[in-house]
Design brief:
The chain is α+β, with helices and mostly antiparallel strands. The chain has 2 helices and 9 strands, in the order ββαββαβββββ.
Length: 142
């Protein structure tokens, strides 16, 4: 069993997010945390809203891109910051479908410590299982 985690590596005009975990869901949640922690200190912010959505995606790379696109959309368009994430696969839904729930706070409830994420670059981003561990790699534009 591997502990989950993430790191964000600054690069020109963005950052590289790397995440890992024992399960697909755990790794995705870590990738979301990495994106949020790259620009915000959550502190004691208590969620006062949430967004839920279901995804049916063709592959794991598309799953990562779609989840991170939704996170960035919440930040940029709705001015909401995800502070907690839960991801369930196939619980009462068809296999290959995922239910995602982002607990959110207003952007002004967090302390901004970096540039807001603007987009995920599909080229160079991937999500897969390697040697029993789920790993995500995403290029984020800021």
């Amino acid at each position: 069993m591997v502990s989950s985690g993430y790191r964000a590596i600054p690069r020109a005009a963005g950052l590289v997010v790397e995440a890992w975990g024992d399960s697909r869901e755990e790794c995705l949640a870590e990738a979301v945390r990495a994106v949020v922690d790259s620009f915000a200190e959550i502190g004691d912010a208590v969620p006062d809203g949430s967004v839920e959505f279901a995804l049916a995606v063709r592959d794991d790379d598309a799953l990562l891109l779609t989840v991170l696109d939704e996170v960035i959309d919440q930040i940029q368009v709705e001015e909401r910051v995800p502070v907690d994430v839960s991801i369930d696969e196939g619980t009462g839904i068809a296999m290959g479908e995922f239910e995602i729930r982002l607990a959110t706070v207003p952007l002004e409830a967090v302390r901004e410590v970096g540039a807001l994420p603007e987009a995920v670059q599909p080229a160079g981003s991937w999500f897969r299982r390697e040697s029993g561990v789920w790993r995500a790699h995403a290029l984020i534009e800021v």
